[in-house]
Specification:
By secondary structure, the chain is α/β, with parallel strands linked by helices. The chain has two domains: about 240 residues, Rossmann fold (3-Layer(aba) Sandwich); about 40 residues, no CATH class. The chain is built from ten helices and ten strands. It has a six-stranded mixed beta sheet, sandwiched between helices. A two-stranded antiparallel ribbon has the order 1-2. This is DUF58 domain-containing protein. It comes from Marinobacter subterrani. It holds the Pfam family DUF58.
Length: about 325
């Protein structure tokens, strides 16, 4: 039996249970090749670089470029440096729960899908040994949690995701004009919070991009790996051919006649214009983008999108 409430608003216990989906997404890696000298074998995992581990006596076969000449001179015997791959990195999740996400024509509301995607990615990052943080924003408030490698940190982020979802369409009427720039505000905050080399996911419907959005994304992507997960509803891409429909608005439901050719033409023109703006935004910023439908299971969608190292391909 489908929990209808969970289709419009997802609670903290349900977000916690998504850790099972995250564990299922962790594909087993190939058996690592042990080597006496770092750098000779290709690692099954991608890291940010090589971190110094220790210095030991030089052994036949070691790369002479790794010799530590200071230690060699001090101890009067050749010593070489050993390195290990850096795998831990901060993961920052920007989750949009604004007014436009309190909607769906099929599946679950966009705000539910955004919260689910953010939760699965948070658990996945934690199980991978990464630091997890997030910025959750909904038009009225913006909550910042700096990355940390603790389960308590993930639970606190999930609690924020549950709390900041909307539960009543009447709340939309209280949102002021400042909500039009909520995504840009979050991106600006992310530049302050993110450390160089962070993995950043921006989860939104991207309906309220501005001329500055691409610049802000590009500034983030300059020193970090940034992916955009766009949550959209099928109704946003294609209208039904016939029928009268109601869409929730800040002042109550708005009715439209899908059979009206002028309405269809205006709708498709608006959708095409926004799509061009969005594609240009992602292209100029160098951000990798993918879409998830409200009708899709988020774990299934992520399984198709996430590649080695958590990259979207």
């Amino acid at each position: 039996m489908v929990n209808t409430e969970a289709l419009t608003h997802i609670a903290l216990p349900d977000l916690i249970r998504l850790q099972a989906d995250a564990r299922a997404l962790k594909l087993p890696s190939a058996r690592p090749v042990r080597s006496r000298q770092a750098g000779l074998q290709r690692s099954p995992q991608r890291g940010r670089g090589m971190a110094f581990a220790e210095v030991r006596l030089y052994q036949p076969g070691d790369d002479i470029r790794s010799i530590d000449w200071r230690v060699t001179a001090r101890r009067q015997a050749p010593h070489t440096k050993l390195y290990e791959e850096e795998r831990e990195r901060p993961v920052l999740l920007l989750c949009d729960l604004g007014p436009s996400l309190f909607f769906a024509s099929t599946g679950a509301f966009k705000q539910v899908r955004c919260a689910q995607l953010a939760s699965i990615l948070a658990w996945l990052a934690l199980w991978s040994g990464d630091q997890v943080g997030g910025i959750v924003f909904n038009g009225e408030s913006l909550s910042v949690q700096r990355p940390a490698r603790r389960k308590k940190s993930v639970l606190r982020l999930l609690d924020t995701l549950a709390e900041q979802q909307r539960t009543d369409s009447r709340e939309l009427a209280s949102i002021g004009a400042s909500s039009q720039t909520r995504l840009d505000t979050a991106l600006t905050e992310a530049r302050r919070v993110a450390h160089t080399g962070s993995r950043i996911f921006v989860i939104s419907d991207f309906l309220e991009i501005s001329p500055d959005t691409g610049k802000l994304l590009g500034a983030l992507a300059r020193h970090n790996s940034v992916s955009a997960l766009r949550v959209l509803d099928p109704l946003e891409e294609e209208l039904p051919k016939t029928g009268r429909f109601a869409v929730a608005g800040p002042n109550g439901p708005v009715w439209f006649d899908a059979a009206n050719p002028r309405f269809q033409q205006a709708w498709h023109a608006k959708v095409a214009s926004h799509q061009r703006q969005l594609e240009d935004c992602f292209r100029t910023s160098g951000v990798i983008a993918a879409s998830v439908s409200t009708g899709e299971d988020p774990a299934t969608a992520l399984k198709a999108l996430l590649g080695p190292g958590g990259r979207i391909g």
